[in-house]
Specification:
Length: 337
């Protein structure tokens, strides 16, 4: 080794990494708990919480337990939730009739949260999968193979009105039918619900990462050949990027207030591209499979949980998401305090 070896170099990027203070001074991205949405699973009954085996640390909550979770969320600065109901067999039918019940579990949960915590923003999921006996997000045609678009959209628009009347600040169509954002906007406006926002799942991919979510809400068909349904007839093909841009542009045109990309971590290119093309807030959903993969590796001691969670979220933010839906919201926000 030559002791006198010195690079003749003016530009040394490492200067900015010299100390913790310098690092944080130069940090480009930071996540505020108030930009997170916590997805929550709701079940019937009182005083209960069920474990979800494929999502350790996440529970299906009765409405009263959900209210306690909301209190915890608000304490650490998380001010938005997205409830998903686990609907029992008696609430499932081919045409998803329960989706239009103003007293459905989902609508009761929305109303209860808004009554107790009016300051909490609630995003209602608008899709039929919790309510269909076959588990699809829409109504099947006679062949049983294809989801009927317009018939489904008619139901979704009615569902959105009921969710808004139950108190939802945001309605979030997650179904991927064509034209649903415009139909929902028209329906809301016709009922004078002009202030209800639409967060469109614009680029929702036909991803393998939704499995644990389907376990959580019980939307996987029982006894079929495959454990999880194929939704490629409406959700986006993971091979495509331009198609996502087209969907986002259509939804913006139809009146979406927020554009969402889902999943998040494996679709950061899509988040970044949509960010460049819209002035609307962009949301990204770190889905159940992303959560479960991190939990599984950390439980084995193969990854450091705190660092892995923080890195997964900051990557989504850095790619361009303003809003992140994540099951880690409370864990992250409580650490940030
Ligand atoms: C369905 C819906 C899904 C998710 C949210 N809404 C799954 C699906 O398309 O089957 C997945 C969320 C997650 O995996 O965390 N409308």
């Amino acid at each position: 080794m030559n002791e006198n070896f010195k690079l003749d170099m003016k530009k040394r990027p490492r200067r900015l990494r010299r100390s913790a203070a310098m690092l944080s001074l130069c940090a480009e991205t930071e996540i505020q708990p108030s930009s997170l949405i916590l997805p929550v699973f709701v079940k019937e009954g009182k005083g209960g919480s069920d474990k979800i085996p494929s999502m350790p640390g996440v529970y299906r909550l009765s409405i009263d337990s959900l209210l306690r979770l909301c209190e915890r969320a608000l304490k650490c600065g998380v001010r938005a939730i997205a409830p998903f109901p686990q609907v029992g067999a008696d609430g499932k039918s081919p045409r998803a009739d329960e989706a239009l019940n103003p007293k459905s579990l989902a609508n009761r949960a929305i109303a209860a949260v808004k009554k107790r915590f009016p300051e909490m923003a609630v995003a209602a999921d608008i899709a039929l999968d919790p309510y269909t006996s076959h588990g699809h997000d829409g109504i099947l045609d006679a062949s049983g193979e294809w989801i009927l678009n317009d018939e489904t959209v008619e139901i979704l628009a009615a569902m959105a009105i009921i969710a808004a009347q139950s108190g939802a600040d945001i309605v979030a169509p997650s179904d991927m039918m064509d034209g649903r954002v415009g139909a929902i906007r028209d329906a809301l406006d016709d009922c004078d619900m002009v202030d209800t926002s639409i967060m469109a799942y614009s680029a929702k991919y036909a991803s393998a990462l939704y499995g644990p979510f389907r376990d959580a809400i019980g939307s996987s068909p029982k006894g079929g050949k495959k454990k999880y349904l194929d939704k490629k007839g409406y959700q986006l093909n993971p091979q495509n990027a331009r198609e996502a841009l087209r969907e986002a542009a259509l939804d913006e045109d139809e009146g979406a207030d927020i554009i969402m990309v889902k999943p998040a971590g494996q679709y950061l290119d899509i988040v970044a591209k949509i960010r460049e093309r819209t002035n609307l807030p962009v949301a990204a959903y770190q889905v159940s499979g992303e959560y479960s993969m991190i939990c599984a590796a950390c439980d084995k001691g193969w990854l450091d949980r705190e660092k892995t969670v923080a890195e997964s979220l900051v990557s989504i933010k850095r790619a361009g998401a303003d809003i992140i839906l994540t099951y880690f919201a409370l864990e992250f926000a409580e650490r940030a305090r």
